[in-house]
Amino acid sequence: MSTTKVYFKTFGCRTNIYDTQIMMQSLNKEDFDLVKNEDEADIVVVNSCTVTNGADVNARGYINGLNRKGKKVFIGGCGAFSKGKELFEKDKVFGVFGHSEKENLNKLLKKEEKFVQIGDLKSLDKTIVENYLGKSKAFIKIQEGCNFRCSYCIIPYVRGDARSQDEALILEQIQKLASHGFGEFVLTGTNIGSYGKDTNSSLGRLLQNIGSIKGVRRVRLGSIEPVQIDDSFREVLREPWLERHLHIALQHTNEDMLKIMKRRNNARDDLKLFYELESLGYALGTDFIVGHPGESEEIWEDAMDKIKEFPLTHIHAFTYSKRDGTPSAKLKNSIRGDVSKRRLKELQSLIKQKNLAFRLKNRVPLEVLVEEKKDNFHIGYDQFYNQIHIKSSVDISKEWINIGEYNVEKDGNYAKFEI
């Protein structure tokens, strides 16, 4: 008797990548076979995202396509909370399950009756991820949930309040992955800067302990808040294993806009922090929401004037997307879509110029983890989280290499590598 074939489709953030790995490991090989192609699958598990309306639309469109192919569909992830019941009632999915249920996925996929099993928003994963098939780096979820209540954000309502993963479990996981050859670890979560607030610890202390594990070459962090860079975090800033790139969420640089968004940061203190980190050699990225209700032309011009002062090299910028149930959804003074798109392009263009200037100024040897081969280039990321395209006559996929000579181009760095 052949086993049922299962395919996993992951939408959204790094946390979802980790959660998908938890789900995969929860399956019993005697019951299910993992496949790499949805067309081969009997069952498709969709790990969904709901951070924007577009994320919901993408997941719904994908599920509609699966329905046309006759696949049995299950939905988990953040979208299970926002759109799961609707999809279930429309008979688009066989089962809906919440974050707390993913470690029980083997049992859920064997259910004979359709179900909605959301669970709670207080759980923490207990499964230790020991491998990432086909990946060059490992994602480590260190916490879940968020205590912030920014006016535009739905995530705390679908991930719960902040709670830290057990430190011993995190370290055990990294030790096992390092022993399997992984050298780069990406710490992820809903709001990783809050790690340890509920356990009398801190992100800085956790990082020190991770850095002492044999085999750890580089630690990369997800997004952290400016107010979360405390003294314990500053103690690790000069450690060689910490990636020379930090992603610090500003969301905006106009003071009035930050108040409307109910943010905890202010542009004046943020700028001081960014200058401090720049002086230590860091490339710096941020999140930025364009076109939030109330973002007048005067506010936008002020924000752009300020952001020109910031030593930014990377940006995750996006136009505001209304999320039902959030305070921002009730605000008037909405911004037209064409205006938001124009502002977004203006912002992205500025940061591209800043990134190029950074790469031209910081022409230092690059430590690169090669992640994939595409067309004629091997592609990897250096210690500043800048992409580099490498031509090589030998296969260097998933290898660590040092690049001393390279060309700095507008769209990235280019190099040749030979043994």
Topology readout:
Elements: E1 4-10, H1 14-26, E2 32-34, E3 43-48, H2 53-68, E4 72-77, H3 79-82, H4 84-89, E5 95-97, H5 105-109, E6 115-117, E7 138-141, E8 143-144, H6 155-159, E9 163-164, H7 167-179, E10 184-188, H8 203-211, E11 218-221, H9 231-234, E12 245-247, H10 255-260, H11 267-279, E13 283-290, H12 297-307, E14 314-319, H13 337-361, E15 366-374, E16 377-381, E17 387-391, E18 400-403, E19 407-409, E20 412-416
Parallel strand pairs: 1-2, 1-3, 3-4, 4-5, 5-6, 7-10, 10-11, 12-13, 13-14, 17-20
Antiparallel strand pairs: 8-9, 15-16, 15-18, 16-17, 19-20
Helix share bin: 25-40%
**Care to count the β-strands?**
20
What is the tally of helical segments? 13
Q: Quick one: biggest sheet?
A: 6 strands, parallel
User: Which strand order spans the largest sheet, edge to edge or round the barrel?
Assistant: 2-1-3-4-5-6
What does this structure look like?
The protein is of the alpha/beta class and 419 residues long. The chain has 3 domains: 4-117, Rossmann fold; 138-361, pyruvate-formate lyase- activating enzyme (Alpha-Beta Horseshoe); 366-416. Helix content is 31%, strand content 22%. The protein is built from 13 helices and 20 strands. The chain has helices at residues 14-26, 53-68, 79-82, 84-89, 105-109, 155-159, 167-179, 203-211, 231-234, 255-260, 267-279, 297-307, 337-361, and strands at residues 4-10, 32-34, 43-48, 72-77, 95-97, 115-117, 138-141, 143-144, 163-164, 184-188, 218-221, 245-247, 283-290, 314-319, 366-374, 377-381, 387-391, 400-403, 407-409, 412-416. A 6-stranded parallel beta sheet has the order 2-1-3-4-5-6, sandwiched between helices. A hairpin with a 2-residue loop joins strand 15 (366-374) and strand 16 (377-381). The longest helix has 25 residues, at 337-361. The radius of gyration is 22 Å and the shape is globular. The termini are far apart. The model has no long low-confidence stretch (mean pLDDT 94).
